[in-house]
Amino acid sequence: MFRTRALTAAAAALGLAGCSDAAVGQVPAPGSTAPATPTSAVAPALAVETVAGGLTHGWDIGFLPDGKVLVSQRTGQFALLSSGRPGATATTLRADTADIQVRGEGGLLGMVVHPDFATSREFTSCQTHTEGGQPKDIRLVTWKLSDDEQSATKVKDLLTGLPLAASGRHSGCRPTIAADGALLVGTGDTASASASQDRGNLGGKVLRIDLKTGAPLADNPTPGSPVYTYGHRNVQGVAIRPGSGQVLTAEHGPDKNDEVNLLVAGANYGWDPSQGGTVSEYDESVPMTDLTRFPDAVPAKWESGPTTEAVCASAFLDGEQWGALNGALVVTALKGAKLLLLSLDKDANVQSVAIPPEFADQFGRLRAARTGPDGALYVTTSNGSDDKLLRITPKA
Fold first, then answer.
1. 109 neighbors 102 (Cβ within 8 angstroms)
2. SS3 labels along the chain
3. Across the strands, what pairs with 78?
4. Residues 286-314: tens digit of each pLDDT
5. How far apart are CA 279 and CA 193, in angstroms?
6. Inter-residue contact 286 to 275 (CB < 8 Å)
7. Are the beta carbons of 294 and 316 closer than 8 angstroms?
8. What is the pTM for the complete model shown?
9. 193-210 residue pLDDT tens
10. Which residues, in sequence order, are bridge partners of residue 129?
11. Does residue 108 contact residue 138 with C-beta atoms inside 8 Å?
12. Cα(146)–Cα(155) distance, integer angstroms
């Protein structure tokens, strides 16, 4: 049984029913941020297996065609796991990552394996970059895995110039390949007051670029610009909804209102700690989505309410084996140390939010979430010592 908040009794139509709990977040009605009445949910129990331990702050997960799994670690190492099944062994790849700034929230961050990996052996990572020992920028770097799978070499800098705070704060940087093959990249505002609303700044945005060249795509909202959406605070989850191509993002709030958003090309998501440029300090008392200052800003599909969970990665469950959870959006939580499972209607309005009890106080901080080619959900822990890659399936 899962703890949940729900919008209405419509959750029952999704196969969810049961007992209630008010332990997490708020579900806004469509077009508003008003809290909903808590109801309940029943969904399949989960089996959680440890694929491998010994990791350190696993930040993202990539699946190779031969069944091996690549994990980026914030400390600057790539780990190659022999499989996605329990008992896998991990190899630390030799890779020149000496220019990565590992500080605060910065380091080796998000990652995607290229769709043509079987022939190109390429993958792309996000990383905080230094020059002469000084923080320079956040950049996307394309790598090639060696034939013997012992090392990775840099192919090129795919995209440079994402802002980087010296402290590493709000580095963001979650890349995900969209249904149309575009590379979407969620970025952080680096705790800069003006970054999110400045469309010439790549911080506090979702970017849309060509995976091979790094160039902005021709049909982006602004010709010649990689900016797809703006007005974000710190996007660390980007998930593509199977069957629809909808893009849902998870975004850190300040001291309240973590958000899940549905992306609309060219839209403003309303974060502006500069208060329209009237203050220079980073004013975190402003709303996450400031509909007073920006009436056309897009409201969140879900908010965490008066506290934050420190939401991170997001991914969709896909397949009949998930039963009532088929199609649910998974969001990991760092501070909250839990999984959130959001059931959505066809317009991505949140119908219920469930918390699997299997994760309550069991694994600590949860960072990455990706659905594997086998239909299982893979999640990393981010506790800083003996972190793990977990494989999650419905319990038989």
1. no
2. CEEEEECCHHHHHHCCCCCECCCCCECCCCCCCCCCCCCEECCCCEEEEEEEEEECCEEEEEECCCCCEEEEECCCEEEEECCCCCCCCEEECECCCCCECCCCCCCEEEEEECCCHHHHCEEEEEEEEEECCEEEEEEEEEEEECCCCCEEEEEEEEEEEECCCCCCCCCEEEEEECCCCCEEEEEECCCCCCCCCCCCCCCCEEEEECCCCCCECCCCCCCCCCEEEECCCEEEEEEECCCCCCEEEEECCCCCCCEEEECCCCCECCCCCCCCCCCCCCCCCCCCCCCCCCCCCCCCCEECCCCCCCEEEEEECCCHHHHHHCCCEEEEECCCCCEEEEEECCCCCEEEEEECHHHCCCCCCEEEEEECCCCCEEEEECCCCCEEEEEEEECC
3. 72
4. 999 999 999 999 999 999 999 999 999 99
5. 8
6. yes
7. no
8. 0.91
9. 999 999 999 999 999 999
10. 100, 137
11. no
12. 12
Tokens of 66: 């031969």
